[in-house]
Give the backbone structure.
Amino acid sequence: MRKVILQLVKATFPILAGFSTLINSAYSQQNIIAGKDDTHPEITAQQYSPAKIYELSAVQMHGYNEIQWSAMAEEDTRRYIVEYSSDGINYQSAGELTALRGIYSLKHYTLDTRTFLYRIKIEKTDGRFFNSTNFLLGGIEIAPVKIYPTIVEGNTLNLRMTFPVQRMNIISLDGKQVMAKDLGGIIGSTQVAIPVLSRGQYLVTFYGNGWQSTEKFMIGGS
C-alpha cells in the first residue's frame, strides 16, 4: 500500500459512494454511516477549529480511502465528521467518529476513482461547527486559488484556480479597495489585468459558490 498524490479534477460524473466503515484506532470503536446529505459550509479562516487537528492524511487503498488524523485540546468536542468533495463546493459526509481523545482513522469506501478533497468538520458540545484545512490524497493541503509569482512587476496577475471563481476583490493593507472584478466562474490557469498600483503588499479575496479564499501579492518596482 502506498500513498498516491493526485491532481484534483472537476467532476463530470456523479459520485458513486457506497457506505463508510468507521474505525477509531485508539478505542477500536466501529460504526457504519450511509446516505449523508450534501453540506454547503463556507471555507473561511474563521471556521477553522480551535481544537488542534494535525497529522492529516488520506491514503488510497483498494476500494476505499483511509483518512487519518490526530487531535489535541478537544475536551469540548463532541464528534468529528469527515467530509469529501470533488469540486470544493459541494461536500458530502464520508462518516463520523465520536471525540475520544487520540488518533483517529476512518475508511471511506467508494467506487469513484476521482481524487477527492477532504476536510474534518468538528462539532463542539455547544453545537457549533468548525472546519479543518482542506487536504487531498496524501494529506496535501490545497488552496482554491494560487497567485504566481507573488511578486508582480507589471499589471497582470497570473492565477491558477482549482475551483470555479465567481469574483475577486483587491484591497491594500490599509483596507482600501483598489479593484473588484467578476470572473464568471472560470477555472484553471488565467491572467487578470489589474490597475496600476503603488509598490507594496496587497490582499486579494476570491469568491466561489459557498467559499472564499484570500491570498497576498507584492507589487515590485518603483
Summary: DSSP finds no helices and 15 strands in the chain. Residues 1-49 have pLDDT under 50 and may be disordered. The longest strand covers residues 156-172.
